[in-house]
Design a protein that fits this description.
The structure is a homodimer of 326-residue chains.
Chain A (H helix, E strand, L loop, with lengths): L1 E5 L4 H12 L2 E2 L2 E2 L2 E6 L12 E6 L6 H8 L4 E4 L5 H6 L1 H22 L4 E7 L22 H18 L4 E7 L1 E2 L12 H11 L4 E3 L6 E5 L1 H13 L10 E3 L3 E4 H12 L7 E3 L3 H8 L8 H5 L8 H13 L7
Parallel strand pairs in A: 1-4, 1-6, 4-5, 6-7, 7-8, 8-12, 9-11, 10-14
Antiparallel strand pairs in A: 2-3, 11-13
């Protein structure tokens, strides 16, 4: 089976490819070849039992389409995206990669005519306030960012291309991924990872919002498991609604900090410095606190049990093993 | 005030332009110039007190953008679309006009930098089964046609371009327009108009579905009134959710036929020949029966009182006056 992953140099893409090297099968079918695609040259995998090629390309250009036409994958994982902060700062780049790039990729798959499975990484960013405390599965995607808009458009295209029989698509709406390894980035959500990661690394973290802030999380390990599951399930069970809320852990900042201390020991929370930022507080107040993921759960998707497990997964996967992820 | 209407040669576009000629103001501001744009050369308006120009152009090409940049409108009515039957039959044409064309138009408006009002014609085709008997305002657009997908994408773009301040947009989700003047077309919904229009013209109509079928309607006169209202209301009241379900009349086929006889007299229903078509019945069974339009009503949008009024509007506007609409 041939797998193609876009965004393979990204955090989740990289972890997924590494997991494939350790466990080279999806849904009982073994992986023969993996093509890692990213705008940044992906570092080649080591220790994989299957062929690996890397391909550095902007997905909004046509050369990826040619590659797909010459060697169509059996499963395409479309994870590449301009992330939320950048899509908001650079309107043209966000639409070019996240909408035009996705359209070109889907068109290439359509014209390859081998009707593969397409797994599309969407996000809870498709939701914007107001929404109920638990966002229902049939709630309108009314995003309040360009990134969320672009993901919602990708979901619509995925469903229509699937309905037309051009490919067999499944869209997975990721929770906020936490704890992200590496350094803080400029995303407004960056502090969610920082307040766990930095103390565990003996560093100070800044907390710009109140302890009562509640949000929806999954660990990188759970995110990788979603990708395996999305590649494995029988898509005939899905019907025309192809985009699924993924399960996650709903936790307040206060609960996150308590989990850090419960797992790592008392004292770590002292490294968290409270420095309220009204701008970030206002943004975060508009983010989902909990989503109904019962369809995904019925289909065998599962997330971390609780936030303590999320902390443990970071310690095991990234702190102890020294992550290879940028 | 300069008005630009795309789709000006279409049924609603034409009626709206004719109504503007009779009542050349929107929201208290008088119309100085009307630009009628369509893929088919629009027939020039007669009797207008303002300047009228017609422009035949495919909106997925760039020449409309140049026109907009050289003379930006104060209100853009974007009604042009490849209709549902054609968008399903010709996948590429539907996406080219309904998505790429809409994107190019929005980009032209963005670069003109005059931040006009944009009124976007959407449709209840954004909804696909399953849905509740009355579709809530916050229900997910999960379309089951390429046309509905393309309209849902247009809605998302409209909301994001508005949020970013590139223009001030409002999307109006039209009910099925009934009674359409003219001849039956190939749309699966064509019979809804035929069973009223053909008997009133002394002709036989074919009814392919059962009398119990319920659907959501507005007359062409109500549709034109929606467009005037969308041009007039204070969009600051709208918030980030820019796309509104329009009010309509929920009626069964049986109620439609009873209305025909109540308005026109007994005997007309004899011209309706029942010829069940399971394919059409199955399609129509997946169409909205009633939508919650309370936000639009609060903003002053109103539809016909009942189906009898819809029949009377057809008689007054098209049967008696001999419509100029193709």
């Amino acid at each position: 089976m041939k797998i193609l992953v876009t965004g393979a140099a990204g955090m989740i893409g990289r972890k997924f490819c590494e997991a494939l090297a350790r466990r080279p099968e999806i849904g009982g079918a073994s992986v023969d070849k993996l093509t890692m695609v990213d705008a940044i040259e992906p570092v080649a995998l080591t220790g994989a039992s299957f062929a690996v090629e890397t391909f550095q390309v902007d997905i909004s250009t046509l050369s990826l389409a040619e590659r797909i036409l010459s060697e169509p994958p059996d499963i395409l994982y479309h994870l590449a995206a301009v992330v939320s902060g950048e899509a908001e700062a650079d309107f043209d780049k966000g639409y070019s990669v996240n909408v035009t790039g996705t359209q070109k990729l889907f068109e290439a798959i359509r014209h390859a005519q081998n009707r593969p499975r397409v797994v599309f990484a969407s996000s809870i960013a498709v939701f914007g306030i107001p929404f109920p405390e638990i966002i229902p599965q049939e709630y309108i995607p009314a995003p309040l960012t360009s990134y969320g808009t672009q993901k919602a458009i990708g979901e619509l295209l995925l469903a229509d291309y699937s309905r037309r029989g051009f490919f067999d698509g499944i869209g997975i709406r990721f929770p906020t991924i936490c704890v992200r390894p590496g350094k803080p980035n400029k995303a407004a959500s960056s502090f969610f990872s920082s307040i766990i990661r930095e103390p565990l690394n003996g560093q100070t973290a800044v907390l710009p919002v109140g302890d009562e802030v509640r949000h929806w999380f999954a660990s990188p390990r759970a995110a990788v498991a979603f990708l395996f599951r999305a590649g494995a399930i029988d898509l005939r069970d899905l019907g025309p609604r192809r985009n699924l809320n993924m399960p996650g852990v709903s936790a307040t900042v206060g609960e996150m900090i308590a989990s850090l201390e419960a797992v790592a020991g008392p004292g770590f929370a002292k490294l968290i410095r409270r420095d309220p930022d009204p701008t970030i507080q206002r943004m975060v107040d508009g983010w989902p606190r909990r989503v109904d993921a019962s369809r995904a759960k019925e289909l065998g998707f599962s997330a971390d049990d609780d936030f303590e497990e999320i902390v443990r997964h970071y310690i095991e996967d990234d702190l102890a093993r020294k992550s290879t992820v940028r």
